[in-house]
């Protein structure tokens, strides 16, 4: 495989930092672009040992110029607390970010992979979710700044593809967790682990019977790189996630038992439009990428707990 120069937007975030590392390990040059809204320099400064690594502080809502062969577009806050903090900015990041990235990719005729989300399915009425499902999204709720702007970003990608034949790839990521999540990220896996390690109450929203399917980050990164390397004309969207499904209560029990914590479960109101169930149908990923997740929830949680023990010490 020949070495490429690759731009990773949102590269200092949780998933982006793992992706930068993987691409550098494969011998590529990587430019990590980030505005540090939810990402952190600490996630990527260790990678500066690779001579082919550069970090650029920039916002994807502004036009940008780089000379690269491939682009992975990850820039966007992903945790509900952060994407709802400044919803208009979230919409700009998703939609203007997609437009800017596609302009750059079109100018360079570069291949571009966009990270969409299982949230395009909203509170899904079919289960598990296949890529053909159009979703059940409230267009005016608190989650819609994220859901609808991610849906619009997909539209921008596919309209560009239809207009110009640009080499695009769209993936829909389902709940992914692992090291490099920020302790204040606000998503369920990091919240529960941090609470358990600090001996604080575990915050269950609603009755905890809602489900999610949790994918360990290493599995996701393998699939992202495999997707980028699929043949021209295969655009996706492709669901990427681990189809093993758990209730939020089951997750809390697992975290408590793996940390040996005596934290108590406490019950809080369920956020508006919180999806009741979520599980990816990964048939397409299996057939097109030859990919299946390998790391089960317990093993992935062990790695993630070890990471949080280190950074909270
Ligand atoms: P994250 O919040 O850790 O990373 C997002 C990164 O984007 C951060 O480093 C942040 O600073 C950066 N960013 C935000 N706005 C920006 C802007 N305007 N300009 C430049 N950089 C900006 O989240 P993550 O979990 O690593 O998610 C990465 C991508 O994957 C996101 O696009 C997210 O929507 C998508 N995704 C993630 C999950 C998941 O479970 N982790 C699920 C579905 C989709
Ligand atoms: N959740 C919870 N306690 C928390 C954080 C989240 O019970 O401290 C719930 C949340 O209501 C949702 C699920 O866990 O039902 C997953 O939430 P997360 O924010 O991780 O992701 P998303 O809702 O985007 O899938």
Write a brief structural summary.
With 313 residues, the protein is an alpha/beta fold. The protein has helices at residues 14-25, 80-83, 87-108, 144-164, 188-198, 217-228, 248-259, 283-289, 297-312; strands at 5-9, 29-34, 53-57, 70-73, 111-117, 168-173, 176-177, 202-205, 211-213, 215-216, 238-240, 245-247, 265-268. The protein has one domain: NAD(P)-binding Rossmann-like Domain (Rossmann fold, 3-Layer(aba) Sandwich).
3D structure, described in words:
By secondary structure, the protein is an alpha/beta fold. It has a single domain, classed as 3-Layer(aba) Sandwich (Rossmann fold), CATH 3.40.50. 37% of the residues lie in helices and 17% in strands. The chain is built from 9 helices and 13 strands. The strands form 4 sheets. Strands 3-2-1-4-5-6-11 form a 7-stranded parallel β-sheet, with helices on both faces. Helix 3 (87-108) runs parallel beside helix 4 (144-164). It binds nicotinamide-adenine-dinucleotide and uridine-5'-diphosphate (UDP). Uridine-5'-diphosphate (UDP) binds next to helix 5 and strand 8. Keywords: Decarboxylase, Lyase, NAD. Its cofactor is NAD(+). Residues 6-233 form the NAD-dependent epimerase/dehydratase domain. This is SDR family oxidoreductase.
Key descriptive features of the protein:
binds nicotinamide-adenine-dinucleotide, alpha/beta, globular, 9 helices, 313 residues, Epimerase_deHydtase, NAD, Rossmann fold, lyase, decarboxylase
Write the H/E string, N to C.
EHEEEHHEHEEHEEEHEEHEHH
How would you classify the quaternary structure? single chain
Radius of gyration: 19 Å
Helix content: 25-40%
Going across the major beta sheet, what is the strand order?
Answer: 3-2-1-4-5-6-11
Structural class category = alpha/beta
Round the mean pLDDT to the nearest integer and report it.
Answer: 97
Q: How large a portion of the residues is in β-strands, by DSSP E?
A: 15-25%
CATH architecture: 3-Layer(aba) Sandwich
Corresponding CATH superfamily? NAD(P)-binding Rossmann-like Domain
| Cofactors, ions, other ligands | nicotinamide-adenine-dinucleotide, uridine-5'-diphosphate
Number of strands: 13
Low-confidence stretches: none
- Biggest β-sheet, characterized? 7 strands, parallel
Shape field: globular
CATH topology value? Rossmann fold
- Counted up, domains total 1
Kindly report how far apart the N and C termini lie.
41 Å
Number of helices: 9
Domain NAD-dependent epimerase/dehydratase: 6-233
Organism: Pelosinus baikalensis
Cofactor: NAD(+)
Protein name: SDR family oxidoreductase
């Amino acid at each position: 495989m020949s070495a490429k120069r690759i731009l990773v937007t949102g590269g200092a975030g949780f998933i982006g930092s793992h992706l930068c590392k993987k691409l550098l390990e494969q011998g590529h040059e990587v430019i990590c672009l980030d505005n540090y809204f939810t990402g952190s320099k600490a996630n990527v400064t260790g990678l500066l040992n690779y001579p082919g690594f550069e970090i650029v502080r920039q916002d994807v809502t502004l036009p940008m110029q780089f000379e690269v062969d491939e682009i992975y577009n990850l820039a966007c806050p992903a945790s509900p607390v952060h994407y709802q903090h400044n919803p208009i900015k979230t919409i700009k990041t998703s939609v203007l970010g997609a437009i800017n990235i596609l302009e750059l990719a079109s100018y360079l005729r570069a291949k571009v992979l966009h990270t969409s989300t299982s949230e395009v399915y909203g509170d899904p009425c079919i289960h598990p979710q296949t890529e053909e499902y159009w979703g059940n999204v409230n267009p005016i709720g608190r989650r819609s700044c994220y859901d609808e702007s991610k849906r619009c970003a997909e539209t921008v990608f596919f309209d560009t593809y239809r207009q110009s034949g640009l080499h695009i790839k769209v993936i829909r990521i389902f709940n992914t967790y692992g090291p490099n999540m920020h302790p204040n990220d606000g998503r369920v896996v990091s919240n529960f682990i941090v609470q358990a390690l600090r001996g604080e109450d575990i915050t269950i929203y609603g009755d905890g019977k809602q489900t999610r399917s949790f994918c360990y980050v290493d599995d996701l990164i393998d699939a992202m790189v495999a997707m980028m390397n699929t043949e021209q004309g295969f655009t996706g969207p492709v669901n990427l996630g681990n189809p093993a499904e758990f209730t939020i209560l089951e997750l809390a029990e697992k975290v408590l038992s793996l940390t040996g914590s005596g934290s108590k479960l406490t019950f809080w109101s369920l956020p508006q439009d919180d999806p009741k169930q979520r599980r990816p149908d990964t048939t397409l990923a299996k057939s097109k990428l030859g990919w299946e997740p390998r790391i089960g929830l317990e093993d992935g949680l062990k790695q993630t707990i070890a990471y949080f023990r280190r950074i909270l010490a």
